[in-house]
Specification:
By secondary structure, the protein is mainly alpha-helical. The protein contains three helices and no strands.
């Protein structure tokens, strides 16, 4: 699984980063500094294919079981 770029854990810092990205004062690409750009693209490409490929391999029964477990966990919170 590809490692996602780190975002600030502090709510205020994260909000500022989001505003900076939206107002183009900071680029989302700045978070990938020091990484090989080709590797970043390949990692993202694999991440986009992963969930869809997994869903295609699962049977309808398996998908239903996974969805049921996820719903139970979501509603426990």
């Amino acid at each position: 699984m590809a490692k996602k770029s780190k975002r600030p854990s502090d709510v205020n810092q994260r909000a500022k980063l989001i505003v900076d990205i939206l107002t183009e004062q900071a680029k989302d690409d700045d978070l990938h500094k020091g990484k090989n750009p080709a590797a970043v693209v390949l990692g993202r490409l694999g991440g986009l294919k992963g969930g869809k490929a997994r869903a295609e391999k699962l049977s309808a029964k398996e998908r239903k079981e996974i969805a049921s477990k996820a719903a139970i966990i979501r509603w426990k919170k």
